[in-house]
Amino acid sequence: MKDCIFCKIVKREIPAEIIHEDEYVLAFRDINPQAPVHVQIIPKKHIETLMDISPEDKDILSAIFMAAIKIAGNEGVNSSGFRMVQNCNADAGQEVFHIHFHLLGGRKMTWPPG
Ligand code: 5GP
Ligand code: ZN
Hints:
Blueprint: H1 5-10, E1 18-21, E2 25-29, E3 37-43, H2 58-74, E4 82-85, H3 89-92, E5 101-105
Antiparallel strand pairs: 1-2, 2-3, 3-5, 4-5
Bound molecules: guanosine-5'-monophosphate and zinc ion.
């Protein structure tokens, strides 16, 4: 997708601190971190929202969560805890319309979310 900022990160057209890559997934540090650990885990494929996932994307979803497990360990938050957030559409505050999972950790989280 030509004007998608996350597609541009996948294609290395804009810089990001990439910490994981595999066949399906890229993960990089958020530019405006909301916690000591704040990583974006995204599919390399351009998918706009969670609602646009189809059964053929099941390998992508699996890869996202396997990457999350690995990243949580590498970042040292697997035991202390972390949060995975997926904002879908306007009420959730989705700003980038290339599906992404926030992995947040390194501080105590509150509930309910804002
Ligand atoms: P959303 O509100 O769509 O769930 O989250 C979008 C996230 O992407 C935000 O946390 C924002 O800081 C992050 N973000 C937006 N543009 C960039 C960018 O160019 N590089 C990086 N690393 N993160 C970005
Ligand atoms: Zn995209």
